[in-house]
Structure formats: structure tokens, C-alpha cells
Amino acid sequence: MLLIIILAAVLVSFLLLLAVASRSVTIPRQIGPDEGIDDNEIVKAYDRISQWPQFRVIRRIIIHELKRHYPQGTLVDVGCGPGYLLADMARVFNDLKFIGVDISSQMVEKATGNIASKGFIERVSFRVGDIQELPFESNSLDFVVSTLSLHHWLQPSQGFEEILRVLKPSGQFLVFDLKRNSPRLAYWLVRFAQSLILPTALGRINEPTSSFLASYTPTEIEDLMQDTGFTTWRVRAGLFWSFTWGQK
Ligand SMILES: C[S@@+](CC[C@H](N)C(=O)[O-])C[C@H]1O[C@@H](n2cnc3c(N)ncnc32)[C@H](O)[C@@H]1O
Predict the structure, then answer these.
(1) 75 lines ligand 1 (CB under 6 A)
(2) Share of the chain above pLDDT 90, in %
(3) Given its phi and psi angles, is residue 206 left (phi above 0), alpha (psi -120 to 50 degrees) or beta?
(4) I need a labelling partner for 136 at 20 to 30 A (CA). Which of 24, 28, 176, 194 fits?
(5) Which domain CATH number covers 167?
(6) What's the predicted TM-score (pTM) here?
């Protein structure tokens, strides 16, 4: 009898915990301190964790989504960071030409080294640039990708306007970012990782928690998109992320 009571108590506690963990977090957006990542220690730390299996899985999810849109021609990755997504895309999409753009010159330097060491430098070039003023002519690009960067943009609507400007007619974009209204469990895991596993340089700037807090809910992204010139777009929410796709 006692055993049954204990088992029932364990089961009820587990179900309660599950119910709490799966509830979405509803908190106002909190803007982080920095736009670009331009601190050498942070660049090194971000470069290191980008090679961890968890990040590889995220890049697989992104490439899987990208394949659904049949990218062709020239693809630009804005906020490319250390360039691992560019390397993975270059491996998968053999016919594409790639350009990485980042507001941080240190990130661009790191990405250039990474791409060279992986043997893709012939097909991948880099520019230092800001999403708000992309270093490209109007109607010149086939595809724009941006991952884990949207929450850093000072004026996101202007960022999307810039994407619209540089895309060729029928050109597409795909933006991937964290989702602030993720299940509580995502925040617990991130806080746990931040204090025990991730490099201390990231913990000092409260990352990745502050990126989660600065990210948008899918509804907020839909509101943003209404303010842009794009007429064809959609936002798709995942477990703790969202994909925004659009076409010119
Ligand atoms: C969290 S990292 C993501 C890097 C990479 N895309 C990834 O998925 O791992 C965000 C990157 O966006 C860049 N960034 C932030 N604001 C930007 C802006 N306004 N224009 C271009 N890049 C920006 C940062 O410098 C940083 O390298």
C-alpha cells in the first residue's frame, strides 16, 4: 500500500513538473546590451560552442528548412557569426555562391579562417556590414538567410526592408531565431547550461539567456512583417525557435 502511495506521489509530482515545464513563458521583451559581437573573448567562446553537437543539430534543422525553398544563385548569410552555417550550406548546396555578412569585423575574421580551413573559400566570401544598410546593390541577390541574429537588430522592420531591397524579384529570405515564449523548460535548460557548461565569457554577459529574452514571439514577428513591403511571407513556430520566410 505504502509503495502504491509513493509511486502515485512520484507520478503526480512528475506530471505537475511536466505541466509547469511545458507552459510558455510570457514576459515582455528585454533588449540586450549589444548589437554585434565584437569582443575577442566572446567571439572565441561563440566559435567554440558553435562546434558543439547541439549547434550542429540546430544547423541541420535550418538546412532542412532551407531545402524546402530550393535556394539558387547567390545566398547571403547576414549575421553569419563564425561561419559554420555557411560551411554546412556550402557542403549541401554545391551550386550556390555564398556571402557572409556580419556587423562584427572580429566575427568576419574568425569566419574567414574557419571557411578557409574547411576548403570552401572559393565559393564563400565575406563583408563587414549591418543588416540596416546591407553592402549590396538593389535587386542583386537570390536568397538571404539570417540565423540567431534578428533579436540583435536595432530596427528589425528596417532590416526586413533592406532584405527586400537587395533581393531580386522572386528572391527569398529565411530568418531563424529563438522564440521568447518558449516552454519554461527551455529557459531552465539554458540557465543550467549557462551556469555549469558554457564558457564563462558568455555567462558574464548573461548569454544565452539574454538572447532568449531579447527574441520575438511569432506574433510579434507577424506584426513586424505587416510593417514591411513584403506581401508574401509566413512565420512558423518551432519548439523554441521560429522561422520567418518571405519572397519578393
Ligand atoms: C548569436 S550570433 C549568430 C551567429 C550565426 N548566425 C549562428 O547562427 O551561429 C549573432 C550574430 O549577429 C551579428 N549581428 C548582430 N547585429 C547585427 C547587424 N545589425 N547586422 C549584421 N550582423 C549583426 C553578431 O555580430 C553575431 O555575429
Answers:
(1) no
(2) 74
(3) left
(4) 176
(5) 3.40.50.150
(6) 0.92
